[in-house]
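ASSEMBLY PREDICTION REQUEST
Request ID: AP-0331
Submitted by: J.K., bench scientist
Number of chains: two
Total residues: 666
Priority: normal
Notes: Please return the full assembly, not individual chains.
Input sequences:
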Amino acid sequence: MAQVSSLDYFNISELLSEDEVMIQRATREFVDHEVLPVISKHHRDATFPTELIPKMAELGFLGSSLPTEYGCAGLNNVAYGLLMQELERGDSGIRSFCSVQGALVMYPIFQFGSDEQKKKWLPQLASGKKIGCFGLTEPDFGSNPGGMKTRARKKGNDWILSGAKMWITNGSMADVAVVWAKDDDGVIRGFLVEKGMKGFSAPEMTRKFSLRASVTSELVFHDVVVPESNRLPKAEGISSPLKCLTQARYGIAWGALGAAIACYETALSYAKSRIQFDKPIAGFQLIQEKLVWMLTEITKGQLLALQLGRLKDQNKAKFTHVSMGKMNNVRIAREITHLAREILGANGILDEYPVIRHMMNIESVYTYEGTNEMHTLILGADITGIEAYR
Amino acid sequence: MSRGDRFLLDLSPEGGDEKNMKIGVLLKQVPDTATKVKIVNDAIDESEVKWVINPYDEYAVEAALRLKEKAGGGEVVIVTAGPARAVETMRQVLAMGADRGIRIDTAGLTLDPYTTAVMLAAACKDEQFNIIFAGKQAVDDDCAQVHIGVAEFLQIPHVSPIEKFELNADLTQAVVERPVSGGVKEVIEVKLPAVFGCEKGLNEPRYASLPGIMKAKSKPMKELSGRDLLQGKTPLLAQSQYALPPEGRKGKMISGTAHEAAKELVRLLREEAKVV
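STATUS: Completed
Returned structure:
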């Protein structure tokens, strides 16, 4: 039986199909050869590795779980998850790019778009010829997106968009933005706002200490005229963007494991070779305890993510399941990045090792796509029937 | 008449059809080069071995895929002699874009380069390939004999290793570059059909794409019996025993200035190593 080429203490390979294993292995190989050699420099320079876009597109990484008729790979949820894990083992910024393009741009066009919109956008987005972003969060509305201020007023056969979005991954490099705005009746609707539309700008947010190899932007709409043909006809209400987020959060439940695995593997190999008091520090009980905790939490996270994927493939996954996956796996990944940093001692702060980069990245992942706190309260509401966050 | 015309497809412009170029690739599954070899009961313990495509074979696969793409049609067929686990490696090559696979089952057989070449040649003969690519050697036993044996038994030419490959316009002849010692390159014209052993640098092998991986599982895979193909032929080589190389001797660092170190080195060579 084929084995994954990644950390697999509980032999989850045995629970995977042959093509799922092949996808994990192929992606890890890609990350080893194409992402890891360039990522530190991009992180230092705070640039997104755009040179990887055509390569990732050609290999089918963009919108990989959408059907083949749009030029996509048609992966099941588990294979898609393994792809996200391996990409984030490279860098959360690379995984974020693919998450946004696939789950937050192509997915809503596929799910809520007209046939014309699907035909026009999906193949171009799959091939990386066009880049997309997703505009929901606003400066004053993060955990409570339903309160958004961005407005879409109907004027003849057009819509006039005004307002601003913030913390938008891929924003400044995007050719198309999936933008959520309230109409005159207060109903949230989705629009495809294209680069170059008058009154639309996407200034990049700089000076980040996290996700430095990823573009984060504001989206500003100054009475932008958007034709009715650019409205997503099947999207209506806050549940539409939340459905997209459920897709993306599912990928993060796997992706966070990738960052955790990168840090665990680095810490383990460092601990075995770093000599203090005439023996490898891996031989000290306090180091072993940290390593074992990391391994155990990653293994539990893998089993959680895998069953989440299987449920999702059977259409049995509830959004609360996805919340638990995102909440748990990002939380443990965050602690694992810190423990790895501790094990590496002073070397842990150098970008010669991937640890500090992952540690800073995961701070964003912990907060975006539903904060750890919101996912906790979503689960709290599910089991008690009482919403604690309102 | 070229020797290969005896049984392989006619590739002349009148008789050949470039769209039907049939390309064979000899593929071997080998242990990952990072594998730590263990010997148990005078045999290599395979229980913890991770298996991969022989790295040189990846260049062969890429050369075959590029040739098919350039010709605008045809078929890339991979031929492997190996046990059931080799299917996994073959699927990876199908995911890269090869069209189908033939596995010669070797379960229960004791083989050497000669018998392996006999089996592969027999399978290739039935396929009537226009051209065959292989890695210049496999990184497990490093024999570098099998593909040459295949060419010999098919009675067609071979060139190995090659660093450059081009096909002439009427697809009857290849022009290849073969490195020889001292940085000199031989440029060789070869009439097809022929076997080529591929060297690192010939091309950059592609990654398997996700759609390619999804398609791979439905591509045809044929199994042949190695025993049948051997027709009673037996190995010319016998393995008498396995031994790991001796543990590397510990080096000794000599410190101090160049002058002191040189003095110490001479002293050690004279007094400890007793070589000067």
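REVIEWER COMMENTS: Chain A has a mean pLDDT of 97.
SIGN-OFF: pending second reviewer
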